[in-house]
């Protein structure tokens, strides 16, 4: 313990709170400092004046408000009751008026509304409530900054020590609160698609799609739906560079009247594999080696050499479509096949396409490598700045539709996500336009905590038997329960416009709850409420079969890969071959041989181009 024994200014003791009198006998373990520490300056903030008092008047904020920032654009303000100015009586104390809301806690002289703000859902059977009432909280705070438990913070810049240069006291609750919260500021990053960015906006339907789907958000021309989009790279960690070769994630969350609808796609139309059970393997092969945390292309090419179905994806990923510097210039693809079903239970397979209105733009590998070093966040910044400057990116949603009869006549399996559907036979049908016109106010709350899931569908949309989609339907919410927590759907960014109404209760971090004590059904005590929804259910689909681990009969791994190669310009073919060769030539010979066998089957010229470029690198 360090104690100043004499001549101390009174306020020093108030900082250190030593109860020992200056000339009192010291214990053998105590350090006696007799010299006055003249080098130290004492901040009046620490004792006599509060920080708040030392602020110039102009910096004082009118109200100390800790608010959940507006998560969505005005269109989604159903989170905030329309009558927010006059909240329902039981919520009046805790729901602030819109004008009282601020994004950040600030120091201020007076507290105009409750320090804890909650936003609730209109006609809420689910209640978000703070205890005790706001009026009591007003009485208990002196104004200005408060800690997580609402205690006033008169000093936020000096920790509580015994004397001026003494050790910090365990009782410094504010210090512990501040640092321990900081220690936990990160949640686990997404296991894939960790680096990304997002924006809010609106989707407007061009036409009613009732003929094909009963989905309410596509019911009529002009129908507007608020959206959140997150763009991402797949393999790198949360701080990795934007331009490295990778598919780009293009995930869209529609806040519809019938619940959340997520289209979780990529900027390339096909995928590496067709059965979700191989997903951890393809990702492991692309991620750094567990031995030394280094990325090693040989691991990926080894996987590819034993997964011929990846050949088509290689012709996309290793073309310059795999290197991008601006999310405004990517198309999006649902990749997997969904089903649209109308009110008469007529089903169509459907594939989604987002067409960028800014035009597709790519960069070559040399520019990508240079930017990865000089400007690693370029794509994130471009999107943010464009929206900030009012230059709103637009993407047109198109669909390809296929009847079950048409599907049966095809030479390949249309539910295989390594395949595209021919656009001359299944033309793109325009569905609507999405405009991204609002940046998030808080990246962590609105983008990092966003939870997309391909199984988040609405009535009028079903999952097809696409094996990848089936696999995906499990993985996303599973990872989100781990990454964010079991109540992740209660976070404003993930909350549906249509309030959840069921018998689920509790779990960590419950803050929205159904006040009914009857949390089971069937029940008579609450008139069997909540009752099942009376939404029309489509006729059930017939399914039967042997249970087994099957490979689809029509794999055809090479036809579309060859067609894709031949559709490229000479320059794009050259880049594709060179981008592959620069990695492949370093791989073990048997790996090279297997991969070259696949390229040969796709297109002889393709294989020759890669071979030629590998020779070039061998001789260098
Ligand atoms: C069975 C195969 C797949 C599995 C198991 C899988 C799993 C995952 C997981 C665990 C995440 C992280 C989600 C989160 O932490 O919130 C994720 C994110 C993502 N996946 Fe997949 N994935 C699969 C296939 C695909 C395919 C085929 C696509 C493209 C069509 C895709 C596109 C995305 C996108 C865009 C994200 C990022 C979503 C966001 O921005 O939060 N995934 N995937």
How does this model look, in words?
This protein is an alpha+beta fold. The chain has helices spanning 10-16, 51-54, 134-140, 173-183, 279-286, 297-305, 311-317, 365-374, 378-388, 404-409, 443-448, 467-483, 559-567, 570-584, 589-602, 604-619, and strands spanning 2-4, 31-33, 127-128, 196-205, 224-233, 248-256, 259-266, 332-333, 338-341, 347-356, 394-403, 429-438, 461-463, 512-513. It has 4 domains: 1-50 and 155-185, no CATH class; 62-140, no CATH class; 196-273 and 308-498, Catalase core domain (Catalase HpII,  Chain A, domain 1, Beta Barrel); 559-619, no CATH class. Strand 9 (338-341) and strand 10 form a beta hairpin. Helix 7 runs parallel beside helix 13 (559-567) and helix 14 crosses helix 16 (604-619). The radius of gyration is 30 Å and the shape is globular. The relative contact order is 0.11. The model is unreliable at 1-125 (pLDDT under 50). Residues 190-193, 196, 230, 232, 249, 251, 264-266, 271, 276, 279, 335-336, 417, 450-452, 468, 471-472, 475-476, 479-480, 483 line the site of protoporphyrin IX containing FE.
Blueprint of the fold:
Elements: E1 2-4, H1 10-16, E2 31-33, H2 51-54, E3 127-128, H3 134-140, H4 173-183, E4 196-205, E5 224-233, E6 248-256, E7 259-266, H5 279-286, H6 297-305, H7 311-317, E8 332-333, E9 338-341, E10 347-356, H8 365-374, H9 378-388, E11 394-403, H10 404-409, E12 429-438, H11 443-448, E13 461-463, H12 467-483, E14 512-513, H13 559-567, H14 570-584, H15 589-602, H16 604-619
Parallel strand pairs: 1-2
Antiparallel strand pairs: 3-14, 4-5, 4-12, 5-6, 6-7, 8-10, 9-10, 9-13, 10-11, 11-12
Bound molecules: protoporphyrin IX containing FE.
């Amino acid at each position: 313990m360090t104690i100043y024994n004499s001549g101390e200014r009174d306020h020093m003791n108030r900082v250190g709170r030593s109860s020992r009198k200056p000339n009192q006998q010291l214990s053998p373990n105590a350090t006696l400092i007799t010299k006055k520490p003249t080098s130290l300056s004492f901040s009046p903030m620490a004792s006599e004046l509060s920080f708040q008092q030392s602020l110039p008047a102009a910096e004082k904020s009118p109200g100390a408000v800790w608010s959940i920032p507006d998560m969505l654009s005005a269109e989604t303000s159903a989170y905030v009751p329309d009558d927010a100015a006059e909240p329902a009586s039981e919520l009046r104390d805790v729901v602030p008026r819109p004008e009282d809301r601020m994004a950040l806690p600030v120091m201020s002289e007076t507290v105009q509304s409750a320090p804890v703000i909650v936003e609730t859902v209109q006609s809420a059977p689910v209640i978000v409530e703070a205890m005790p009432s706001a009026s009591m909280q007003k009485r208990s705070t002196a104004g200005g900054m408060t800690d997580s438990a609402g205690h006033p913070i008169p000093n936020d810049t000096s920790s509580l020590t015994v004397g001026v240069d003494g050790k910090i006291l365990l009782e410094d609750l504010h210090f512990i609160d501040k640092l321990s919260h900081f220690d936990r500021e990160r949640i686990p990053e997404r296991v894939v698609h960790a680096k990304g960015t997002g924006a809010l906006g609106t989707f407007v339907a061009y036409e009613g799609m009732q003929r094909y789907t009963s989905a309410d958000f596509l019911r009529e021309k002009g129908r507007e739906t608020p959206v959140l989009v997150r763009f991402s790279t797949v393999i790198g960690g949360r701080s990795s560079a934007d331009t490295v070769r990778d598919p780009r994630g293009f995930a869209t969350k529609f806040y519809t009247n019938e619940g959340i609808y997520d289209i979780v796609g990529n900027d390339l139309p096909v995928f590496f594999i067709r059965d979700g059970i191989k997903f951890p393997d393809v990702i492991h092969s692309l991620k750094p080696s567990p031995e030394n945390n280094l990325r090693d292309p040989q691991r990926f090419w080894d996987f590819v050499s034993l997964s011929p179905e990846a050949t088509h994806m290689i012709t996309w990923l290793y073309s310059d479509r795999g290197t991008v510097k601006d999310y405004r210039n990517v198309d999006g693809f649902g990749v997997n096949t969904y089903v649209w079903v109308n009110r008469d239970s007529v089903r169509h397979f459907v594939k989604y396409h987002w067409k960028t209105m800014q035009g597709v733009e790519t960069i070559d590998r040399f520019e990508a490598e240079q930017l990865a070093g000089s400007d690693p966040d370029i794509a994130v910044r471009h999107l943010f700045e464009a929206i900030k400057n009012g230059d709103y990116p637009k993407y047109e949603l198109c669909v390809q539709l296929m009847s079950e009869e048409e599907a049966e006549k095809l030479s390949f399996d249309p539910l295989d996500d390594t395949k595209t559907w021919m656009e001359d036979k299944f033309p793109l049908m325009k569905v609507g336009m999405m405009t991204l016109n609002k940046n998030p106010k808080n990246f962590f709350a609105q983008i990092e905590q966003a939870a997309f899931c391909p199984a988040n569908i609405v009535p009028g949309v079903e999952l097809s038997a696409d094996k990848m989609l089936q696999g995906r339907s499990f993985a996303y919410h599973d990872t989100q329960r781990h990454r964010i927590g079991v109540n992740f759907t209660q976070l404003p960014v993930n909350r549906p416009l249509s309030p959840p109404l069921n018998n689920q209760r509790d779990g960590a971090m419950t803050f929205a709850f159904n006040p009914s004590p009857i949390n089971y059904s069937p029940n008579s005590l609450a008139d069997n409420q909540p009752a099942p929804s009376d939404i029309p259910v489509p006729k059930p689909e017939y399914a039967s079969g042997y249970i087994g681990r099957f490979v689809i009969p029509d794999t055809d791994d090479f036809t579309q890969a060859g067609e894709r190669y031949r559709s490229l310009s000479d320059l794009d073919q050259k880049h594709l071959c060179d981008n592959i060769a620069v990695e492949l030539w370093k791989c073990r010979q048997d790996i090279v041989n297997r991969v070259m066998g696949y390229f040969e089957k796709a297109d002889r010229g393709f294989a020759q181009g890669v071979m030629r470029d590998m020779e070039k690198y061998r001789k260098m």
